[in-house]
Specification:
Keywords: Electron transport, Heme, Iron, Membrane, Metal-binding, Mitochondrion, Mitochondrion inner membrane, Respiratory chain, Transmembrane, Transmembrane helix, Transport, Ubiquinone
Main location: mitochondrion
Subcellular location: Mitochondrion inner membrane
Cofactor: heme b
Structural class: mainly alpha
CATH superfamily: Cytochrome Bc1 Complex, Chain C
Pfam families: Cytochrom_B_C (PF00032), Cytochrome_B (PF00033)
Strand content: under 5%
Length: 243
């Protein structure tokens, strides 16, 4: 089963525990970088580069989708119930909702068919992200980027190496240091204890909650009593970047 395969990777595969720890905590580091990137983009007015910005928002959706389907794969309690709750939100769509949910589930509940297709999505989506990232860069190179002063960058241009290469390397090393510290010292700090229990459709966890990087969206979803209203607010919390 999917759950025991995780135990097998961590116990029996050479350095499997390390690969898993870096993979799961690397996602958290990745989202820290993404949110910092969006924040500086808002602060410095990068939304004026419309094509670059809109592809960036599409990239955010793709990354969030990849993280969501990936979180389901270990098939623990929070994986199973997270998948059930979030996919079930599609039933809020008038007329099509119930059919759509069953189509995504591949049956009448989250089951092996759902797990198999989520595994496929978790593999395919990063390639789509890589492709969209190239288009993101392509449009950025059409205009050039901006700077904290908001003025033309041409008079300030200096050689990329060694100045920017060392500056970027420092940031990279600091993020890698943070990743290594978390992965080696507190690998389960950001995870959910419920995921140490195999998925059981008969027992609901006392608190269904996502990983920290989706908490803002989930809090907005749960704060609105109406199902469709909550779903619309959740989408709006990300789509507001398009305005």
């Amino acid at each position: 089963s999917a759950f025991s395969s995780v135990a097998h990777i961590c116990r029996d595969v050479n350095y499997g525990w390390l690969v898993r720890s870096i993979h799961t905590n690397g996602a958290s580091i990745f989202f820290i970088c993404i949110y910092l990137h969006i924040g500086r983009g808002l602060y410095y007015g990068s939304y004026m580069f419309k094509e670059t910005w809109n592809i960036g928002v599409i990239l955010l959706f793709l990354v969030m989708a990849t993280a969501f389907v990936g979180y389901v794969l270990p098939w623990g309690q929070m994986s199973f119930w997270g998948a059930t709750v979030i996919t079930n939100l599609l039933s809020a769509i008038p007329y099509l909702g119930d059919t759509l949910v069953q189509w995504i589930w591949g049956g009448f509940s989250v089951d092996k068919a759902t797990l198999t297709r989520f595994f496929a999505f978790h593999f395919i989506l990063p390639f789509m992200i890589a492709g969209a990232s190239i288009v993101h860069l392509l449009f950025l190179h059409e205009t050039g980027s901006n700077n904290p002063t908001g003025l033309n960058s041409d008079p300030d241009k200096i050689p990329f190496h060694p100045y920017y290469s060392y500056k970027d390397l420092l940031g990279l090393l600091l993020m890698l240091l943070l990743l290594i510290i978390i992965s080696l010292l507190t690998p389960n700090l950001l995870g959910d204890p419920e995921n140490f229990t195999p998925a059981n459709p008969l027992i609901t966890p006392p608190h269904i909650q996502p990983e920290w990087y989706f908490l803002f969206a989930y809090a907005i979803l749960r704060s609105i009593p109406n199902k469709l209203g909550g779903v619309m607010a959740l989408l709006a919390s990300i789509l507001i970047l398009m305005i």
